[in-house]
Design goal:
The chain folds into 2 domains: 2-78 and 190-274, D-Maltodextrin-Binding Protein, domain 2, CATH 3.40.190; 84-185, D-Maltodextrin-Binding Protein, domain 2 (3-Layer(aba) Sandwich), CATH 3.40.190. It is globular and about 55 Å long. By secondary structure, it is of the alpha/beta class. The protein starts with a strand and ends in a 14-residue tail after the last helix. It has 12 helices and 11 strands. Strand 7, helix 5 and strand 8 (136-138) form a beta-alpha-beta unit.
Length: 288
């Protein structure tokens, strides 16, 4: 059986899926046609129900629970892994909350914020922390640092490997939105998950989950097995940064969500519904 599969070219995803798509494990008769896209493109494909299996942000998942069900394996949750707000100058997060940044040099007010996509969990967290900061521009996540450096945006919301590179470019952190979430809730921050199309038979959904778990476990047992594959999609990232990225986003929740992971996801959605950020979710979201 051949299934369409979408995930990002980021090291955490290629690390997780290497064994699955290269048959380093028993895939139980499943074959995969793979699409590599940034997370916001994957979110948009999920809205259209295009893929059998896809990575997507938890924010976007809230809008497609009628089309997809969340697999127990493959998720990115964790502590200290949240998106960062950065700028070219020192800005206090209290100023951003007031939406009245006034840098002595630039006189910036109502800053333009570069975000990696409307339906990313990063943007969801930004809305939770700073509901009045609404002057946003959507950019590909990898372009946000340069947009800040070039003055096209005043503030950048960065994710993925950019957490490790922004300081080298002279950019400054305003706030870690993952820390904000953790202090508010005590839970890991749910960033992205792997979902299966509800049109697939239940036994196929469970088979996908089993195979995915085996792929994650193989990656943990053989961390350098997929090095060439990971590097081939990591642009000019150094091996050190690649594995820092993997260590940050791939953990016990990637093997299985468990009670803690499910609690964090439910809390994320409950908070978002309460604040009117997402519609009420009427479907069961977890694979059972």
């Amino acid at each position: 059986m051949k299934l369409t599969l979408g995930f990002s070219p980021c090291p955490n995803d290629t690390f997780i899926f290497d064994a699955l798509i290269h048959h380093k494990i028993d895939t139980e008769g499943l074959e995969f046609e793979v699409f590599y896209d940034d997370v916001e493109t994957l979110n948009q494909k999920a809205f259209r129900g295009e893929l059998d299996i896809t990575k997507l942000s938890y924010h976007a998942f809230a809008y497609v629970t009628d089309k997809y069900i969340l697999l127990d394996s493959g998720s990115a949750l964790g502590f200290g892994v949240g998106p960062l707000l950065i700028s070219n100058c020192e800005i206090a997060s209290s100023d951003l909350e007031k939406n009245q940044i006034q840098d002595p040099k630039s006189g910036i007010r109502n800053p333009i914020i570069g975000i990696p996509g409307k339906y990313t969990t990063a943007n969801f967290l930004l809305g939770l922390a700073f509901p009045d900061a609404t002057n946003k521009v959507e950019l590909v996540f990898s372009d946000i640092e340069d947009a800040v450096l070039e003055g096209r945006v005043d503030v950048g919301l960065i994710i993925h490997e950019n957490r490790f590179t922004y300081q080298d470019k002279g950019l400054k952190k305003i706030i870690d939105l993952g820390d904000y979430w953790e202090k508010q809730t005590g839970c890991a921050i749910p960033l992205g998950g792997i979902v299966a199309n509800r049109n697939l038979p239940a036994d196929v959904q469970h088979k996908i989950n089993r195979v995915l778990r085996k792929s994650v476990e193989h990656a943990f047992t053989n961390p350098k097995s997929g090095l060439d594959f990971i590097r081939s999609h990591a642009q000019e990232m150094s091996e050190e940064v690649m594995y820092k990225h993997i260590d940050l986003y791939v953990n016990k929740y990637s093997v299985e969500l468990g009670p803690e992971g499910r609690k964090a996801i439910n809390l994320l959605f409950d908070t978002a519904v309460e604040k009117g950020i997402i519609p009420e979710i009427k479907n069961s979201i977890f694979l059972t």
